[in-house]
């Protein structure tokens, strides 16, 4: 099943790609249980030996990824919509997002395991903001999928969901 929101992002050659792999185990969470904090590798340098200029912004997406997961498990799709960027809101209503996430949940169930397979950062033109794409190889209760998150991150590390795709 393929669910796609928002816009297709074309990342130019100036984008910074970092690969890392980390296994994240998830439990079914109730509203009383705290969200697990994923431990993700912190890239220190790119293959060229230069520092990743978007390192702190990539790290900032980990907290919102955890919030997304907790809200997904709680079926709190309106709270996920509250996390979204104006670009997603311009193309997707809260009802459409709820319908799509409900369909993913019914088809695949809860997430049981996820492994980050890479991320990519690109400066947003005419701003100091960055879009960070993070890709996960994920196992759900009833299947597997490749999840792609696009996060808009400001210089002060405020993070907004631009798109979510699961295939």
Concise account of the structure shown:
This protein has helices spanning 55-73, 77-82, 86-91, 94-108; strands spanning 3-4, 16-18, 22-25, 111-123, 130-140, 143-153, 159-166. The chain is of the alpha+beta class.
Describe the structure.
By secondary structure, the chain is α+β, with helices and mostly antiparallel strands. The chain has a single domain, classed as Nuclear Transport Factor 2, Chain: A. Helices cover 28% and strands 31% of the residues. It has helices at 55-73, 77-82, 86-91, 94-108, and strands at residues 3-4, 16-18, 22-25, 111-123, 130-140, 143-153, 159-166. Strands 1, 2, 3, 4, 5, 6 and 7 form a 7-stranded antiparallel sheet that branches. A hairpin with a 5-residue loop joins strand 6 and strand 7 (159-166). The longest helix has 19 residues, at 55-73. The radius of gyration is 15 Å and the shape is globular. The termini are close together. Residues 1-51 have low confidence and may be disordered.
